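Hello everyone,

My group is preparing for a crystallization screen and wants a predicted model to guide construct design. The compound we'll soak is flavin-adenine dinucleotide. Before spending weeks at the bench, it would help to have a computed complex in hand. I've included the protein sequence and the ligand's SMILES below. Output in structure-token form would be ideal because that's what our pipeline reads.
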Amino acid sequence: MQRRDFLHYLSAGAALGMMAPFGNLLAATGPTMPGNTGANGRVVVIGGGMAGTTVAKYLRLWGGTGVQVTLVEPNPTYISNIFSNKVLTGERTLTQLSYKYGTLTSKYGVKLITKSVVAIDPTGQQVLLNDGSKLLYDRLVIAPGIDFDALPMSGTAAAQAKVVHAWKAGVQTTSLQSQIKAMTKTDTFILTIPAKPYRCPPGPYERACVVADYLTRTAKTKGAKVLVLDANPGIQAEVENFTYAFKTIHKNITYVPNAVISSIDATTSISKVNTSVGSFSGKVVNAIPPHKAGKIITDNPLLASVGGRWAGVNVLSYESNTVPNIHVIGDAAATTQPKAGHIANAEAKVCADAIVHLLRGEAVNPSPMTNSACYTPITNTTASWLSVVYRYDPATGTMLPTGNGVTESSGINKDNHEEMLKWFSNLMSDTFA
Ligand SMILES: Cc1cc2nc3c(=O)[nH]c(=O)nc-3n(C[C@H](O)[C@H](O)[C@H](O)COP(=O)(O)OP(=O)(O)OC[C@H]3O[C@@H](n4cnc5c(N)ncnc54)[C@H](O)[C@@H]3O)c2cc1C
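Reply:
Good plan to model first. Here are the tokens for the complex, ready for your pipeline.
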């Protein structure tokens, strides 16, 4: 297969080697809901993001009418994090990145409840919603994404409010966009990257590139600098492409590794970021704090079995290692796979397939495969990419990269930027349409 076809195949959301063999074909040609497939039960899904929406859709598509799926999500609209860096530069709007759940309910018969889950009762197999109501489940899928540790900060409330992460697309993205727009040519934009694991390994370096590109392309800000303070010892993804981009394309970027934040002195003009390798001052501070699984996981120490921060799962079904009948997918799960939207979509399909089999009293697929692809805008017209296919390894019980592992684009160019737009459109259609 040509790389282009391969990436389009991947981006159609294939979870390779799964036991619902026609799933991808159906998705590509316009799926029809099957009747009762012998799988019967109530599945509650917490979180309508990349992972939760996909699992809800595919549970119905592969499980049929006997699988009653209820999705609980507090927001009526999902705003994609993917491409939200392009909102910072004015190339996209949040409205263009907004997705609704209409198809999920009308086409696939998923029941949507626009509320939050505030507690889980694994013994009674029920969840409590923020309006006091309860939902019983036979299988529960939790896909709440991530939460953050608080960063130690000083300064007035107004000054502290300016220090945003914008790592969950929404109001913080808009705030950061305004702050970048207000910069002048003598200003510095500071981006801090937390120690791994964090969501979207190439994402922060991508942000540094597109902000540096915007600052250089805009007359008012040409000459402004980008300072990347990375808590990690080096660039975490696409090392060759980002090293080249930082050194050659965006000479206004300075990259500082091993910079673990100790505190931030926020002011409304110049803020100071104190780190393990020194203090740095900048006009705009975009601080991405250390990550952990969404609160509904960390509120339940039994579920947050990996350091009290992430959910340990069996990657054959994404069932929790510690709590039966509860599955965790997407960024909140601790696996060997990256925390990213494309792989969240793939994990969701492995999980949906496994639950359908379990509801039929059958064994789950013993050798699932997943895939991740990530396109990275480097400027407003060029991009790079990486892709990797994972296969279940029975010896370690983990998903391991196949072949040569992670493949990266051999360059940064306009073709990649065009393919990126198609990839994104396919991925979001597979998730929300
Ligand atoms: C700037 C940026 C760029 C990115 N670019 C890419 C990219 O190019 N490619 C890629 O693959 N990935 C990318 N990602 C990563 C990707 O967005 C995430 O990995 C992905 O969204 C994870 O999916 P998820 O379903 O686990 O979490 P989310 O998509 O965050 O969804 C979680 C959902 O759960 C809901 N929720 C939380 N708690 C509760 C509760 N108690 N009750 C009910 N609902 C709840 C939330 O409201 C939310 O809708 C990027 C991320 C960022 C920040």
